[in-house]
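Archive entry. Fields below.
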Amino acid sequence: MISYIFRRLLLIVPTVIGISICAFAFVRLLPGDPILAMAGEHGVTPERYEILKEAFGYNLPIWQQYLNYLGSVLSGDFGVSLGTKRPVLNEFMTLFPATVELALCAIILATVVGIPAGVLAAVRRGSWLDQGTMGLALTGYSMPIFWWGLLLIMFFSSYLGWTPVSGRIALNFFLRPITGFMTIDSLLYGNWPAFVSALRHLILPTVVLATIPLAVIARQTRSAMLEVLGDDYVRTARAKGLSPGRVVNVHALRNALIPVVTTIGLQVGALMAGAILTETIFSWPGIGKWMIESILKRDYPVVQSGLLLIALIIMAVNLIVDLLYAVINPRIRVR
Amino acid sequence: MMTDISKPVPARPKGARAAAFSEFWHYFSMNRGAVIGLAVVGIFIVLALFAPWIAPYVPEQQFRGFDKLPPAWTNGGDLRFLLGTDEVGRDILSRLIHGARYSLTIGLVVVSIAATVGIVLGLLAGYFRGWVDVAIMRVMDIILAFPSLLLALVLVAILGPGLLNAMLAIALVLQPHFARLVRASVMAEKNREYVTSAKMAGAGHFRLMTITILPNCLGPLIVQATLSFSNAILDAAALGFLGMGAQPPTPEWGTMLAKGREFISSAPWIVTFPGLAILITVLAINLIGDGLRDALDPKLKRS
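PREDICTED_STRUCTURE:
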């Protein structure tokens, strides 16, 4: 197992270097001039321009700029945002919990609904229940989630007035972040109205972000269950006279879950892509919205380090999923 | 992989190809959803091809005094504008019909680029292995490490917003899936007897890759192409929605949504219909994809 982990970690090194080169190169390729962007509307004199160019190291050869960037990243310095003048890492750290809170809720919803739906569809294969569930799943999978979000806002927020339109919490609450998770923080402060408000703000974005993973998990669970239900050991369990519930839930589901776990893990990248759209629609102050705004505003350091951080996190999660997979599926370890 | 590849069948007679197709069609047509999907896509293709003749108006034409008209069947609707008009008085139905041209073109162009590049890279990686494989697959890993939409956004920001650049960016983001798939199939096929026998007969690398091996990897590729087609439409609409895809007044569905967003409480139909058009198209293509997978996957056929 240790050697497996070690091998996986070694494999990651070239990819991480590649990711950092890409993030660095993309930002150099962006049209516009970082120094002029920094100066804003006032502009700079040519002399000042040269001074700034030197101060930020833009006069150095490109490979040296890259090495400098890599050096400062390794020492924890991810640059300073041109817009807010705050360190990129600080901004990332304040916004990241918002995205994690949303993504976690979405993946929990997707799992809690998706797995039972997939199991039910598989057990009642060919019934109207199966067809209905799978029809819904395919619709969810085909959903343009930005439109789906707008529809839900139109119905639940504008028409029924049940849920707020945007943000994480009503403006009259101010909670100093402890965990950065609005729902948990409000409970830690014992502020019940704040918790309710946070929860109400969370519902629609969660549903929107969960839609595609939910569909994927339901479909994957169904096909994994179908495969397993035909296996010999399930037939044996049935022949032993075990109750159908026990056969499905204990004998079949446990084995069917192995590929489903990987599927759930692989949704992390998709969740990040979904977060960009979901956070934009609901003005959710997370890193997805932050990234798109930074791209539109040409906030070079934020785009560069944001890309790097997001890719690294996705890689880390995928690695953890791989290792988890090895833990629950011993067959992989011996390889 | 719809033919039994363990038998050496280098040159199939014409009848066999027709038989293979009719076998495929037999399985495909058993899937009701897939047939419905095919019909819907067919309708959209007709709409796209003959848009100027089918659409009641020119998509850019603004009717003064008719802005934000609701659909014809609701209160205050006008029969001349079946699905209503948008914020500057353009007929939504006409814009949607013309929009079908963009979405289908996007799917076609993106899949053609992504599949071509992906197939070439996958063939090279899977056939030659060694450092070629390592180099190509590491690059694919790097592309896949970024969230697809985020990477596409950055690429469009570099290339400049617009439909063509959006298509290029999406193609680049989607092609690693083709490369990985082809590589895996090539590695599985490479050591089969029919490949060895072709090699003995003196076939060169190029011939072995393209004529001997590639046709036997076609099944999963077709399914992947279908999935990528719908992903391309969704991603292009998302880019349009974020203002980085097709630019207004292009009647691209995602771009239409971006403008209509400001009016979701006063004129909800402006966002409802373009989104519905995206959903129906993507759903139809995914239905076809499911049908294709079932028909082309020999493992599922037996069950």
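CURATOR_NOTE: The mean pLDDT of chain B is 86.
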